Amino acid sequence: MAAAKPNASTPVPGKMSSRVWFYSVLLTLQYGAQSLISKRFISREVIVTSSVLTCEIAKVVCAIVLMAKDGSFKKLAKEWTLMGSLTASGLPAAIYALQNSLLQISYRNLDSLTFSMLNQTKILFTALFTFIILRQRQSIHQIGALFLLIMAAVLLSIGEGSSKASSSGDPEQILFYGIVPVLVGSVFSGLASSLCQWASQVKKHSSYLMTIEMSIVGSLCLLASTSKSPDGEAIRRHGFFYGWTPLTLIPVVANALGGILVGLITTLAGGVTKGFVIVSALLVTAMLQFLFEGKPPSTYSLVALPLIISSISIYQKYPYRVKKKEA
């Protein structure tokens, strides 16, 4: 895959239009509220695979509706090819599936605090692969802003994970089945995010079409796993919608809309911006927990707030500028 040369149509890292800001605010609110509405409206009896598959179906439906609305559906349907689809969406979808498997292995062998802290390294790997694949450079100020963001994410992780004691298992098991998988998963996350950005910005692959393709690939992988998984057995025994109520659709559809927004932000502003949004959403979660559950934000959250604001401000204010060569 040839690295892309920056051009006028490629967004400058750190520069965000009003449209991107709008999408970013929506995604921040959705991501921040998702865990709360999921706890409230999805009962413990609901089979995880059924909610995930329904979410993927909802993503496909939403994407098709939006494509029909902006008039791109017929054109994209005519231009679609299997090879183009596999190149743009198949590889990132496979990488994300592998990343999710690695994270599941890691989470079982690490305490939540260590897991969350190591998982934040995906922001740096996203910036690294964005440079390698797209040749998008970061200024010194932006690199500093990324480290501020990671510091804020670590503080928020400490606030969330401090209630769970550190694991005291076998050191080798913790290293090879805990630390290594989450770090490799972070590398895969950065790679997949950069590949999605490459497909949308360089190959001009529609973000809506990419959402549909990745949802279909992910759903097929999930369906294949149900032949031997506990969820598959539960579905065969109790039915696909076991434990569902009409309100269960609220978090499922909200999560689907969040997936659409991720695709749009990655296309318009890149994977690093998505990282800023996701860390900012952790603060939204803390605030919503205080408003609706009476749980006050931790000291770590209050310290992380100015770090996030500063990192976003610095990243936007000091983009990388190409130095003009003197004659």
TrEMBL record:
Membrane association type: Multi-pass membrane protein
Transmembrane segments annotated in the record for this chain: 49-68, 117-134, 143-162, 174-196, 208-227, 247-268, 275-292, 298-315
Designated name of the protein: CMP-sialic acid transporter 5
Keywords: Membrane, Transmembrane, Transmembrane helix
InterPro entries, per the entry: EmrE-like, Nuc_sug_transpt
Family: Belongs to the nucleotide-sugar transporter family. CMP-Sialate:CMP antiporter (TC 2.A.7.12) subfamily.
UniProt-annotated location(s): Membrane
Pfam families: Nuc_sug_transp
Domain of life the protein comes from: Eukaryota
Organism: Hibiscus sabdariffa
Subcellular location, principal: membrane
UniProt keyword Repeat present: no
